[in-house]
Amino acid sequence: xxxGCADDRADDRADGGPPAEAxxxxxxxxxxxxxxxEFGPRLPFLLxxxxxxxxxxxxHPSARQAxxxxxxxxxxxxxxxxxxxxxxxxxxxxxxxCALTEFHALCGFRDATGxxxxxxxxxxxxxRPCRGxxxxxxxxxxxxxxxxxxxxxxxERRVALLEALLVACAxxxxxxEYRTAVELHxxxxxxxxxxxxxxxxxxxxxxxxxxxxxxxxxxxxxxxxGVEVAGSSGNVLRxxxxxEHVDIAELVSVVDFSTGPVNVVRGRPVERGELAYPAxxxxxxxxxxxxxxxxxxxxxxxxxxxxxxxxxxxxDAAGVTRRARRGQSLWVPAGAGPVRLCTAGGAPSTAFRATxxxxxxxxxxxxxxxxAAPAARSAT
Length: 380
Fold this sequence. Notes:
Elements: E1 3-5, H1 20-25, H2 27-31, H3 33-39, E2 45-51, E3 57-59, H4 63-75, E4 95-99, E5 103-109, H5 112-122, H6 128-136, H7 140-151, H8 155-170, H9 176-187, H10 192-197, E6 200-205, E7 209-213, E8 219-223, E9 225-231, E10 237-240, H11 248-254, E11 264-266, E12 268-271, E13 274-277, E14 285-291, E15 295-297, E16 303-309, E17 311-315, E18 321-325, E19 329-332, E20 339-343, E21 349-355, E22 361-363, E23 369-372, H12 374-377
Antiparallel strand pairs: 1-19, 2-9, 3-10, 4-7, 4-9, 5-6, 5-8, 7-11, 12-13, 13-14, 14-21, 15-20, 16-19, 16-21, 17-18, 17-20, 22-23
Helix pairs in contact: 5-6, 6-7, 8-9
């Protein structure tokens, strides 16, 4: 049976999905044998819309870090709530976001040469200690030192530095990185994330382009509307642009301080009218379906369809019919069989399709999945 799901824009929750009871009652029927065996009785991905407001500067842990952190906090009897702990479950949270409109994000650390040039363009005396630290250590280790210094900077010094920086940035708003710092400060005055934003790649996605965010990558969404699919986890370590819990020591231990440009992911045709966005994540696979004529979806695992234009009608193998309009989603359990899709009156419609990503993974002897298959590793 296909279940219609209402739109849910809440941060870090799915935009539609199955009732937990349905999965618990029969995990194999809901998820398929492979997904249930690999991820347990839970949907391994979340699908949602993200829109038009800066999302906190954040990082997600790897599977290893999540397991260790969750076990440590569980042993310490830390309550599971965002205000008191960093790890809410033992799962990784890779992320892929696809732009519906022009979409702007901060993602990963810019190379040292580019950051030094950005600092020099401001010519702020109070920034010289930061510049000197990075110039003396233009490496991954140097970026870690600089980031740690910014995060641990005393409030009085940070506020004074930000005041001087923002005056200089406001005089050069034609530079996107400076303009972003000014806009972030307007929303989060004095926040350490405003300073950290000057270390990060600023990415502009055209509609239809996507960005993959591996675990360990510091990132924030700045503006625009997009569809996000992510590993099903509540593990978010925040750096700034938030009033929520920030654990600086744990944050620094999780962040990947590698530097360099970000690779934009572009859709690849897999079926007529369907573009897939390859990403090295077993938890999910995202594709975009531009539906004109009727078509049939076949997949052995769970699926969620999020309609972003028009209306989609889905008929499962049992003949059960469900409809979803723009902003609504449909949950398709593995046991629904082939699902026939069509549009209302033949008018064009567009939906994003999230499934598990196990088809792009390779197996170890014994059957366990062990990361991206060779083709997926170089996909971005």
